[in-house]
Amino acid sequence: MFNNDRLLVQIILLVLLGACLWVLAPFISALLWGAILAYASWPLMRLLTRWLNGRETLAASILTLGWILLVILPLVWLGFNLADHIRDAIAFVRDVQVDGLPAAPDWLVSVPLAGPRLAAWWDTLDQQGAALMVSVKPYLGQVGNWLLARSAQIGGGILELTLSLVFVFFFYRDGPRLAAFVLRLLERLVGERAEYYLELVAGTVQRVVNGVIGTAAAQAVLALIGFLIAGIPGALVLGIVTFLLSLIPMGPPLAWIPATAWLVWKSEYGMAVFLGVWGTFIISGVDNVLKPYLISRGGDLPLVIVLLGVFGGLLAFGFIGLFIGPTLLAIGYSLLLDWTRSSHGGANRA
Predict the structure, then answer these.
(1) In a domain, 6, yes or no
(2) Membrane-spanning residues where (predicted)?
(3) What is the extent of the structural domain holding 104?
């Protein structure tokens, strides 16, 4: 016979839990990022707390301020540079409307086979600068809508990043108490295996962080080598940019493709081919090999589980899926192993 009072309490608790999740839903991603960032840098938090004689709030404030300076300042610098490029593009469009296109560049004329024809086509467009703008005007609206959508996504990402940097302060300050609460909750759910699963999640997240940071560092070093060989000015800055771009999916091509285009513009075709091949097979290719290896290293998960978790998580959840995918599959794989072992042990006892 059911206990009606207990059933009613359980229903109320489930409704309350659902309402809490509904309220937190807009912030789930930022909370996950804050938790991942705090966990990955927790050794720094412990070290700084020890230096400050156990003052956790002060240590959390200093570390959070450091992250804000490390992240916000590059974003501000990028925003100012992007604004300059947008102004240059607008000025170029206005010049084309008034004066037409500039003279065809020398490298365009020297393109094998198609060079003279491309130069003639360029001159034809140059004769009708205003007409050219009229012909492309129907497409400008689509391009503008696309840019507006991408700008909205970037703005949402920056807002999410800012929120995660706010949340990371609380994860720093209350980290041990939150870990104890999660452990008690897991003990109520899975019993004596709670600590094992908590360590499994923590280890998986740590390996993913190591894989992401390690792969980004390797891609930055390889990109720097390629830029130096190709004679790209500002190779060190581009290497740092490659490191930052490597933290997002398909980011490194945003660094080496413009550098390759610059080499083509300068008629350095041999170096352009070299940098294009180096970027495609070395800089971008290392991501498909090194990242899964670093993530699977030090754990007992099969490599195929790691690969499915990394790429499936990216497809399902976006960049945050890089952490969620392997963690979910690791927990599911371990639960299935425990279940099959316990079932096998029960069958033997029978």
Answers:
(1) no
(2) 58-80, 154-172, 208-229, 236-257, 269-290, 302-335
(3) 26-340
